[in-house]
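A.,

Following up on our hallway conversation. C-alpha coordinates first:
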Protein backbone atom coordinates (compact mmCIF):
# COMPACT_ATOMS: atom_id res chain seq x y z
CA UNK A 1 0.00 0.00 0.00
CA UNK A 2 1.48 3.37 -1.01
CA UNK A 3 1.26 6.51 1.10
CA UNK A 4 -1.82 7.96 -0.64
CA UNK A 5 -3.70 4.69 -0.11
CA UNK A 6 -2.57 4.73 3.53
CA UNK A 7 -4.02 8.23 3.94
CA UNK A 8 -7.38 7.03 2.60
CA UNK A 9 -7.30 4.01 4.90
CA UNK A 10 -6.54 6.26 7.85
CA UNK A 11 -9.43 8.60 6.95
CA UNK A 12 -11.83 5.65 7.10
CA UNK A 13 -10.49 4.55 10.50
CA UNK A 14 -10.83 8.07 11.87
CA UNK A 15 -14.62 7.80 11.65
CA UNK A 16 -14.58 5.72 14.85
CA UNK A 17 -13.73 8.91 16.78
CA UNK A 18 -16.91 10.05 18.59
CA UNK A 19 -16.23 13.81 18.32
CA UNK A 20 -17.43 15.02 14.90
CA UNK A 21 -15.25 18.13 15.08
CA UNK A 22 -12.09 16.07 15.44
CA UNK A 23 -13.12 13.78 12.59
CA UNK A 24 -13.80 16.80 10.38
CA UNK A 25 -10.38 18.28 11.16
CA UNK A 26 -8.67 14.95 10.48
CA UNK A 27 -10.41 14.70 7.11
CA UNK A 28 -9.41 18.28 6.28
CA UNK A 29 -5.77 17.83 7.33
CA UNK A 30 -5.57 14.52 5.47
CA UNK A 31 -6.54 16.29 2.25
CA UNK A 32 -3.98 18.97 3.09
CA UNK A 33 -1.31 16.29 3.53
CA UNK A 34 -2.08 14.85 0.10
CA UNK A 35 -1.89 18.34 -1.41
CA UNK A 36 1.53 19.09 0.10
CA UNK A 37 2.90 15.73 -1.01
CA UNK A 38 1.64 16.29 -4.55
CA UNK A 39 3.14 19.79 -4.57
CA UNK A 40 6.52 18.36 -3.52
CA UNK A 41 6.27 15.80 -6.32
CA UNK A 42 5.33 18.52 -8.83
CA UNK A 43 8.40 20.54 -7.83
CA UNK A 44 10.57 17.43 -8.28
CA UNK A 45 9.02 16.64 -11.67
CA UNK A 46 9.71 20.23 -12.74
CA UNK A 47 13.37 19.82 -11.77
CA UNK A 48 13.52 16.63 -13.84
CA UNK A 49 12.18 18.49 -16.88
CA UNK A 50 15.30 20.71 -16.85
CA UNK A 51 17.70 17.82 -16.19
CA UNK A 52 19.55 18.05 -19.51
CA UNK A 53 19.15 21.78 -20.10
CA UNK A 54 21.56 24.54 -19.18
CA UNK A 55 21.81 28.30 -19.55
CA UNK A 56 24.42 27.75 -22.28
CA UNK A 57 22.20 25.47 -24.36
CA UNK A 58 18.89 27.28 -23.83
CA UNK A 59 18.14 30.93 -24.48
CA UNK A 60 15.14 33.12 -23.70
CA UNK A 61 13.93 36.23 -25.46
CA UNK A 62 12.29 37.67 -22.32
CA UNK A 63 14.57 39.99 -20.37
CA UNK A 64 12.98 39.14 -17.02
CA UNK A 65 12.68 35.39 -17.59
CA UNK A 66 14.32 33.08 -15.09
CA UNK A 67 17.39 31.25 -16.35
CA UNK A 68 17.50 27.44 -16.25
CA UNK A 69 19.72 27.60 -13.14
CA UNK A 70 17.29 29.99 -11.44
CA UNK A 71 14.32 27.75 -12.28
CA UNK A 72 16.09 24.75 -10.80
CA UNK A 73 16.93 26.75 -7.66
CA UNK A 74 13.30 27.85 -7.40
CA UNK A 75 11.90 24.33 -7.71
CA UNK A 76 14.52 22.98 -5.29
CA UNK A 77 13.38 25.55 -2.72
CA UNK A 78 9.75 24.60 -3.41
CA UNK A 79 10.59 20.91 -3.02
CA UNK A 80 12.23 21.37 0.41
CA UNK A 81 9.37 23.61 1.55
CA UNK A 82 6.47 21.39 0.52
CA UNK A 83 8.13 18.14 1.58
CA UNK A 84 8.79 19.54 5.06
CA UNK A 85 5.30 21.06 5.15
CA UNK A 86 3.83 17.59 4.62
CA UNK A 87 5.44 16.51 7.90
CA UNK A 88 4.00 19.51 9.74
CA UNK A 89 0.53 18.74 8.36
CA UNK A 90 1.03 15.13 9.45
CA UNK A 91 1.63 16.49 12.94
CA UNK A 92 -1.73 18.30 12.79
CA UNK A 93 -3.40 14.98 11.96
CA UNK A 94 -1.73 13.20 14.87
CA UNK A 95 -2.64 16.05 17.22
CA UNK A 96 -6.31 15.45 16.44
CA UNK A 97 -6.17 11.66 16.19
CA UNK A 98 -4.48 11.21 19.59
CA UNK A 99 -6.35 14.13 21.16
CA UNK A 100 -3.13 15.84 22.23
CA UNK A 101 -5.08 19.12 22.60
CA UNK A 102 -2.27 21.25 21.20
CA UNK A 103 -3.08 24.67 19.78
CA UNK A 104 -3.03 24.46 15.98
CA UNK A 105 -0.75 27.51 15.84
CA UNK A 106 1.92 25.71 17.87
CA UNK A 107 1.76 22.34 16.16
CA UNK A 108 4.82 21.25 14.20
CA UNK A 109 6.46 17.92 13.44
CA UNK A 110 9.24 18.54 15.96
CA UNK A 111 6.89 19.72 18.71
CA UNK A 112 4.52 16.77 18.34
CA UNK A 113 7.47 14.36 18.41
CA UNK A 114 8.59 16.00 21.67
CA UNK A 115 5.12 15.68 23.21
CA UNK A 116 4.84 12.05 22.15
CA UNK A 117 8.18 11.28 23.80
CA UNK A 118 7.02 12.98 27.01
CA UNK A 119 3.49 11.58 27.26
CA UNK A 120 3.16 8.58 24.93
CA UNK A 121 6.53 6.88 24.96
CA UNK A 122 4.85 3.45 25.14
CA UNK A 123 3.19 3.83 21.75
CA UNK A 124 4.57 2.49 18.49
CA UNK A 125 3.61 5.76 16.82
CA UNK A 126 6.00 7.64 19.11
CA UNK A 127 8.83 5.35 18.11
CA UNK A 128 7.95 5.80 14.44
CA UNK A 129 7.86 9.59 14.85
CA UNK A 130 11.25 9.56 16.53
CA UNK A 131 12.69 7.18 13.92
CA UNK A 132 11.63 9.62 11.22
CA UNK A 133 13.10 12.60 13.08
CA UNK A 134 16.41 10.79 13.58
CA UNK A 135 16.65 9.60 9.98
CA UNK A 136 19.22 11.15 7.65
CA UNK A 137 16.62 12.14 5.03
CA UNK A 138 14.75 14.15 7.65
CA UNK A 139 17.86 15.75 9.13
CA UNK A 140 19.10 16.80 5.69
CA UNK A 141 15.66 18.03 4.65
CA UNK A 142 15.52 20.13 7.80
CA UNK A 143 18.88 21.72 6.98
CA UNK A 144 18.14 22.37 3.28
CA UNK A 145 14.72 23.81 4.02
CA UNK A 146 15.99 25.99 6.87
CA UNK A 147 18.82 27.35 4.77
CA UNK A 148 16.74 28.01 1.65
CA UNK A 149 13.96 29.80 3.54
CA UNK A 150 15.81 31.62 6.30
CA UNK A 151 19.40 32.04 5.13
CA UNK A 152 20.50 31.82 1.52
CA UNK A 153 20.35 29.80 -1.68
CA UNK A 154 21.48 26.19 -1.56
CA UNK A 155 24.83 25.61 -3.24
CA UNK A 156 24.53 23.51 -6.40
CA UNK A 157 27.52 22.42 -8.46
CA UNK A 158 26.81 22.17 -12.20
CA UNK A 159 29.12 20.20 -14.47
CA UNK A 160 28.78 20.06 -18.27
CA UNK A 161 30.37 17.43 -20.46
CA UNK A 162 30.24 17.61 -24.25
CA UNK A 163 30.75 14.46 -26.31
CA UNK A 164 31.37 14.58 -30.08
CA UNK A 165 31.28 11.58 -32.43
CA UNK A 166 33.08 11.35 -35.79
CA UNK A 167 30.61 11.93 -38.61
CA UNK A 168 29.43 8.95 -40.63
CA UNK A 169 29.62 6.29 -37.93
CA UNK A 170 26.55 4.57 -36.53
CA UNK A 171 26.14 5.42 -32.85
CA UNK A 172 23.29 5.15 -30.39
CA UNK A 173 23.61 8.84 -29.52
CA UNK A 174 23.59 12.12 -31.40
CA UNK A 175 26.70 13.37 -33.20
CA UNK A 176 27.05 16.04 -30.54
CA UNK A 177 25.61 15.56 -27.08
CA UNK A 178 25.83 17.42 -23.81
CA UNK A 179 25.61 15.76 -20.41
CA UNK A 180 24.75 17.95 -17.45
CA UNK A 181 25.19 16.87 -13.85
CA UNK A 182 24.07 18.87 -10.83
CA UNK A 183 25.14 18.07 -7.27
CA UNK A 184 23.86 19.43 -3.95
CA UNK A 185 26.27 20.53 -1.26
CA UNK A 186 26.70 18.08 1.62
CA UNK A 187 25.89 20.62 4.31
CA UNK A 188 23.95 23.77 3.33
CA UNK A 189 24.78 25.42 6.65
CA UNK A 190 28.48 25.61 5.77
CA UNK A 191 29.75 28.65 3.90
CA UNK A 192 32.50 26.59 2.26
CA UNK A 193 30.44 24.01 0.34
CA UNK A 194 31.58 20.43 -0.26
CA UNK A 195 30.04 17.78 -2.48
CA UNK A 196 31.90 14.66 -1.35
CA UNK A 197 28.66 12.75 -0.69
CA UNK A 198 27.65 13.16 -4.35
CA UNK A 199 24.00 14.08 -3.78
CA UNK A 200 22.91 14.22 -7.40
CA UNK A 201 19.91 16.23 -8.54
CA UNK A 202 17.24 14.89 -8.92
CA UNK A 203 18.20 11.34 -7.80
CA UNK A 204 19.04 12.29 -4.22
CA UNK A 205 15.82 14.26 -3.86
CA UNK A 206 13.76 11.39 -5.26
CA UNK A 207 15.33 9.01 -2.76
CA UNK A 208 14.71 11.42 0.15
CA UNK A 209 11.08 11.88 -0.86
CA UNK A 210 10.46 8.12 -1.11
CA UNK A 211 12.01 7.43 2.30
CA UNK A 212 10.08 10.22 4.03
CA UNK A 213 6.83 9.18 2.36
CA UNK A 214 7.46 5.69 3.72
CA UNK A 215 7.85 7.16 7.23
CA UNK A 216 4.58 9.06 6.81
CA UNK A 217 2.78 5.92 5.66
CA UNK A 218 4.07 3.94 8.64
CA UNK A 219 3.02 6.63 11.13
CA UNK A 220 -0.49 6.78 9.68
CA UNK A 221 -0.73 2.97 9.62
CA UNK A 222 0.00 2.85 13.35
CA UNK A 223 -2.44 5.62 14.25
CA UNK A 224 -5.88 4.79 15.68
CA UNK A 225 -4.87 1.17 16.20
CA UNK A 226 -4.19 -0.77 19.35
CA UNK A 227 -0.46 -0.10 19.30
CA UNK A 228 0.77 -0.35 22.87
CA UNK A 229 3.61 -2.78 23.27
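Then the amino acids I'd put at each of the 229 positions:
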Amino acid sequence: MDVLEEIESFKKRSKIIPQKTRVQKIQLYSEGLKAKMKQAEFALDSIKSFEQQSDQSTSSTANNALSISEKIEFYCDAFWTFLYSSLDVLAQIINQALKLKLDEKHVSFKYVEKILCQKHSNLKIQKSFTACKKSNPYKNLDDYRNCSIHRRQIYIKEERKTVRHTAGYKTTTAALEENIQRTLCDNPLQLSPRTKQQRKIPDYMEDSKNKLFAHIAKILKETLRQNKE
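The beta strands are 156-164, 176-184, 199-201. Curious whether your intuition agrees with the design.

B.
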